[in-house]
Each structure stands twice: as structure tokens, then as C-alpha cells.
């Protein structure tokens, strides 16, 4: 059997990590030693064509995927929301999709000009992120709001503003309870990319996540991987990002003007209009010293008693904000006849479900098939014919 | 889902179909204002002993809330009455909307039934078939599937401006014997059960095509 010339080991690594399986498990399933898997991935050895075929069928990737060259990986750290409690395998799975998103953006760049990067210039760009105060963060939130032309009151569509600032956004099923969103400054493209989790049900939570990531993009551009790997530093940076999202969504004066009283019902009454969760409002009230520690504790107890930990009222009702640019680019390529669906899937040989997700297209629009549920099969030993009673009462023809 | 949860959901669905959303929003706003206004009135009263202000406040609030419930009903053409009730000669606002008949009552804190017990007994009896004077809207006399009350309470028990703001207003539906609630749901929470209004979509500019060199103007036809 011939050697699969042109096989890209890094693609095998991506495919395996995208499916969240270890090299040892892949070896077991494909009947290849884990050492060989490792050598394939590192490019020290090239598999035979039949082995590649096994990878294709086990991992459910198009064959071309394993032969597509890989660009250099960005060195800037990826900011994961809730990284501390998330499993490495889940983060790895997410990182692979971020790389694919970059490749998709690179491809679309051949056809489209996306909005230029237009972020408010802030003194925080050069400040040491470890020394930022809450006043610094609040000032930045206010300046972003005014840069975006948002007056007082509730934030309008967050993703629209973020995309107009030149940040490309995608939403995927992260399939990890602990990962809400992640972002990275791409050295290659010179722009930041943001990925939000589709797994979260709440539209208001997604708004908060997006603004949280925006802060990493604005103020943590120069944070190094080693800083991020330090637990204390990571927590500090995450808290800063949460503060920023809170200040953006609930500016002090406007929020206080409209909040009748810091009660669960008082906050719930504002939720739909402000697009902010009651949980985030409780935290904001605490930061504004409207509630002391004991009151906050009592409030969280009542929050739990009302069953809101599983989901707050209005959560399923508010429509989630949708990223637009990448989706619209795909639609335009097809509508204008520049590319056919087959050409797109051939140019971007990722699993169709993943490509549709990154593109923000409805499932099946690029040809992915919905899973067919298993059907019970009648045993051949069971006699068929007159002794079968029709479930629907109709007479057999 | 357990039976009690099914029952609660059943009543909530009926409440959503019975009360206009705007009526509940208006009632909530009116209650907030009523709590603030009555506090201000009592706090500035020169003829009330400081020790008795809290009691006066509760009493004032009771009358004001009956008024507000009646005004909210009137605003949305919901039949209401405040005529004398035969059971105890008491007059309170009673509104009927869809499958519901409802009154209002202050409760010390959420989960509590209105007191005294005699009042509840009266409510329970009245709930079965309201016996009200015949010069009222005929709708008032119709038997309803559920009888509930808008139970409201302040944030805290102390006579203080912040503590005497509205803590919560809930729609409570007691069992027939009035000894326990089958449903307690805050009006704010109930409002989330109403179908959401669709907002017009925002027109976002599309990405722009890269300039195609092949399509450059040649300067000729």
C-alpha cells in the first residue's frame, strides 16, 4: 500500500483534538500504535493511504483536510472565559476551531474587505494590566460607549458594534460546560477574533460574554501566555473583564435612575429592556454598594429558591444577537454565483457541521446531513405477512 | 414534572390568558409609586407618633392599593367593584379578568397568607361565589375558575424609606380553604410568560467586495 504523500501531520493533530480524543484512543480505534500517531502528528513519519482512510472514517473528516497545509500558529495567548475549571481537552477542542475560523477568514479575505479595525484608543493600551483600577476600567467602558455613539440607557446590539469595530465573531458549540467564550489577537491578520459558545441558552449571558472578551481585546493585548497561566493573574484579568462588561451594560447613573429598588423583582423588571441578567445586576448592585454582603447572600439564596440558577425568566424569550459578517460573506459568495456550495466545501475541507457553524449558516445549508436516528430492524426469523397487525389500523394491501 | 409543578404551570397559563400584560405592568408601576407616596405621607405626618407610623403606613397603603387596583382595572376596562361585601361588611376592590377573580392584600413577607385568619375565611367564602350588590357589572357575578390576590410587601419591616419600598408584588392563588397557596409568582416573573414582542431587525451593512481588477472600466463601450 502506498505512502500518503503530502499528508500534513498537524492536520491529524487538529482532527483528533477537534474530536476531543487522545492519541492513545485514536491509536486503539484505528489499530495504529500511539507512538505512530505521535510520529504522524509531528511529521516524523507519513502514514500509508489505508491508514489515512481509517482516520477519515473514524474522525469523520474529508480526506482533503489531511492534505491541506497549515499556516503558522499565532503566538498571542487565547483568553478563555472560565478556563480555570475547564478541562484541557475541551480548551484544545475549542482552540482548533479558532484556527479553522482564521483559515475561513483568510479565505474570505480574498473576496471581501471587512470593516477596518477601529477600536477606541485608550491609555490602557500601554498600561500594565495588573495595575488597572476599577476607575480605569469604568472610564474605558464609558469611553467605548461614547465612541460607539451609545447615549445613556441600555446597550444596543453588542455584536453589531463589535463587528463594526473590525472584530470578527463566530459562534460554535464549544460542548464544554465551563467555556463560555474565547478570543485572541491574531498576529497573522492583525485583528482580534472572538468566538462565543452556542451552548449557552441565554441571550443576555452572551452579551455579557462578548463584552467580557472585548475587554481582553482592548486592554490585555500585551498579556503574555506565562502571565495568563498564573492562576492569580488569570483571576485578576477575568475579574477586570467582568467589571468592564458590567460597566458597559449597566452604567452607574442610568442604571440607578431606573432601578426602583435592589430586589429580585426590581431587577427582573429591567431585564428585558436592558438585556442584562438579574445575576449580573446583583453583582453590579454590590459593586455600587447598594447591597451589603449579607443582602447579596440572601438575594442569591432567594435567586436559587426561585429556580433561577437553571435559567432566569425571559432567558428563552430574548433573541440572541447574531454575528453577521462571516455569515453574510458566505451568503454573498453563493448568491452572486462567485462560488458554488461544492466549491466552498472543497476549498474549505472541514467537517460540514463545523464549517456551517463557523460560518453561522443554518445546519444543512452547506450539505451537512442531520443525524439519522437508529431504527430497529425486524429479525429475519420473524415471519412476516398475515400475522403482522398494522399499527395504524389500515388493511394490508 | 411533578403534579404540583403541573398545577402551577396550569394556573400560570390561565393567568397569562386572563390578565392583559399591560394591566400587570401598570399595576406593578402603580404599586411602586403607592409604596413610595404613602411612605412619604406618613413620614411627614405631624400628627402621628413615631412609634405608630409603621402601623399607619400599613393602613394607608391598604387603602391606596385598593384604589390603585381599581384604577388599573378601570384603565384597561377590566370589571371591578369596591362595593360592600355581605360577609363582613368590608369593602375591598375586587377585579375579574378572564378566568380570574382577584383582590389585593399586604403580607408581611412573601409566602405569608394575609392576616387575620378571619379575613382569609371571609375571602374563602366570598371566593366560591362572590355575593355582591346587583348594581355592579354583570361580569362581577360570574363564577371564576381561580380566585387569587395580588399580595405585596415592602423590602423590610423597619420604617425607613428604602425598606418601605415595594419588595415584591405577587399573584397568589390559594387553595379553596385559603390555608395554603397553590401558586405564588411575582408579577415581574409572570410577565416573562407572555409572548415576547418581535423587535424590528437592524440593517447591518454587508461586507464589501474586493475591487476586481478584471472589472476595471476600460474607458470604451
Description:
The complex is a heterodimer of chains A (397) and B (221). By secondary structure, chain A is mainly α. In chain A, 48% of the residues lie in helices and 5% in strands. In chain A, a hairpin with a 6-residue loop joins strand 4 (181-185) and strand 5 (192-197). Mean pLDDT of chain A is 89; it is low at 393-397. In chain B, a hairpin with a 6-residue loop joins strand 5 and strand 6. Chain B is of the alpha+beta class and 221 residues long. Chain B has one domain. In chain B, helix 2 runs antiparallel to helix 3. Helix content of chain B is 38%, strand content 18%. Chain B has helices at 3-18, 21-43, 53-75, 117-128, 138-141, 187-191, and strands at residues 80-81, 94-97, 100-106, 146-154, 166-174, 181-186, 208-209. Classes of the chains: A mainly alpha (397), B alpha+beta (221). Chain A binds chain B through residues 108, 110-115, 157, 160, 163-164, 260-261, 263-266, 268-269, 272, 306, 313-314, 317-319, 324-325, 328-329, 332, and chain B through 28, 32, 155, 162, 165-169, 186-189, 191-193, 196, 199, 202, 204, 206-210. Strand 2 (112-113) of chain A pairs antiparallel with strand 7 (208-209) of chain B, so a sheet runs across the interface.
Q: What is the 3D shape of chain A?
A: globular
Strand order of the largest sheet of chain B: 1-2-3-4-5-6
Low-confidence stretches of chain B: 213-221
Write down the secondary-structure element order of chain B. Answer: HHHEEEHHEEEHE
Main sheet overview of chain B: 6 strands, mixed
Spatial separation of the terminal alpha carbons of chain A:
53 Å
The amount of beta strand of chain A, in percent, is 5-15%
Work out the helix count of chain A.
Answer: 17
Strand % of chain B is 15-25%
Keywords:
heterodimer, A: 397 residues, mainly alpha, four-stranded mixed beta sheet, disordered C terminus, B: 221 residues, alpha+beta
Q: What is the structure about, briefly put?
A:
Helix content of chain A is 48%, strand content 5%.
